């Protein structure tokens, strides 16, 4: 089973850049998309239907903002849940859950704190709420896969300029500590780092303010696929695809063998 996660920075813009054609080539069983920036009625979905994908979509209430979706082919979900039950998070369309017989898949678009103190405060609140939410899902007995745009670079190896960004939202000590505790306390592994422990330069996002930074690979790894340690023996590969360019992010994924 191949699962790919991708912050599209607007699904309609990504489709104009060849997203559907790339999906056909990649042949993933499940795509987890974040930052759709569209309601389902605003998108021509016939191209995805033609590829055999079904979709579950959770938009933000605010038009052109946030939103997450799960696209899958030949997957039978026990249940798909829109939202995590926290009012503001659900208003912003940040979490969708697919319950598969083998695992619970949580696709999330974590808040960014870059626009100011108010959003940074909300980001930290959201992180605490999300930690408890995942713990509750784990208590239901299934392993979890938690993917999406975390908007945090965890360690110095996950960012091109750790010293220059030590006071920047997305690399603040309290954010990095949250990921450490999230992984340790919920018994999770960061799939890419688990499979590539010393690899530097495996970034998933590059600033659009300076177009040359992607060419120079001056990026951040802020997109993750974390999974329960009980799935460790099923994990066959974890990858990042920086050559795929429909967004300011790139796709990442895992292959599982059941």
Task: Give a written overview of the molecule.
The chain is α+β, with helices and mostly antiparallel strands. It has helices at 11-16, 19-26, 46-50, 87-91, 117-138, 173-185, 191-195, 212-215; strands at 2-7, 30-34, 54-58, 68-72, 79-82, 95-100, 103-109, 144-149, 188-190, 223-228, 235-240, 252-256. The protein is globular and about 45 Å long. The N and C termini lie close together (8 Å). 41% of the residues are buried. The model has no long low-confidence stretch (mean pLDDT 97).
Question: Keyphrases for this structure?
Answer:
single chain, 258 residues, alpha+beta, Deoxyribonuclease I, Chain A, 6-stranded mixed beta sheet, 8 helices, 12 strands, globular
Give a brief rundown of this model.
The protein has helices at 11-16, 19-26, 46-50, 87-91, 117-138, 173-185, 191-195, 212-215, and strands at 2-7, 30-34, 54-58, 68-72, 79-82, 95-100, 103-109, 144-149, 188-190, 223-228, 235-240, 252-256. It is of the alpha+beta class and 258 residues long.
